[in-house]
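Hello,

Our lab assistant flagged a job as stuck in the queue for most of the afternoon. It eventually completed. Since we weren't sure the result was trustworthy after the delay, we are filing this so someone can double-check. Below is the sequence as submitted and the structure that was eventually returned. Let us know if re-running is recommended.
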Amino acid sequence: MSLFEKALATGNIKEVTFFANSPHYLMTTNGKTHSDQKKQNNLKPECYEAFSQYLLVIVDHLYSNVICKYDAEIEVRISPVNEPQWDWGGAGASQEGCHFEPKELAKFYDVFHKALVEYNESKSFDFAMDIFESGNYKMGDTKAKVRSYMTEFAKYDWYKDVDSVSVHSYGTDTNELARVRFHNFLKNKHNNIDVRVSEYCVMEGGVEDSIDMGIYAAKVIMRDLTTVGAISWNYWLSASVYDYEDGLVYWDGADSVSVTKRYYTMGQFSKYIPQNSVRIRTDYNDEFKFNGVECVGFKRPDGSIVLVVINDSKRDKDIKLKFNGDRYDNVKEVVTSKDKNWVTAEYAYDGYITVPSKSVATYILTKPIVEEE
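-- returned structure --
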């Protein structure tokens, strides 16, 4: 059984996105999976349709023969292009990729979308197009050219069918201003389209397993959820074999696995915020985050409230909660800190929660059970 199937077999997978780093080398201008020159569009225009069909046939096979064995209701998304704005070529190119200028990428998506709609209709599928895997979404980054790409997309009819845009947080990290600018751009120019953060890792050598690194990763997640309004968030990679900050879990190639703090701090979100939860407004009286505390809240499908709180200070913080008249009697606390990983406790709620120093903590608040007479 493949690792993909093992993941599906858990029953926890609700969505799968298939993405391509490069078209097949037989479809590229130079016969390679990266360009000879920097910023060179490498997919032959006459192969736009062929590449589209190539992707659809592969995804069809994986869906029909693998995914459907476990859950035919899993949402399937196809991302044909990865980080189109980066160079992906020239002297010293060491990673596969395919650069697209904005106009060329919009033209390709037009061809792919038409092929996708026809394929779905002929096969009774509901595959979705995922765009555009921007390497980062910093509006002020002249190399990223986010505005230029999305302006070109909006010129086509297919753009009306796109429910979200996928981006990567590389280069954005914990920068709040970059997030505010991106959010405002989407709100004002692109009908407040949803955002999926489909990839992020700390791009540094080595593997740091400290609570500081765990808190740093949690801040990236939280600020993407709150400021950008991301509806999903993914780390790259889940499991790594490299001496690099790109994994949640590290495998030595034999029989040993090590787990990082950022695995646990990410779990403070992913384990307790189920699908179909709705983010709720949370106000903390510390606009400039001088106290080291920030939070995000969700209402879960069962009506309970989940708060994820980061305390990056060296002191425990007592926080009073107000819920617009709603009453909550019980609290389940889950904490990851220097010496704790998902340590749970339950207590009667008296209006306050105490967030441990240097921690990421999750609080699940439930309403009292009212028995009918």
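-- support follow-up --
The delay was a queue issue, not a problem with the job. The result is valid. The chain has a mean pLDDT of 94. The chain has two domains: 3-273, 293-366.
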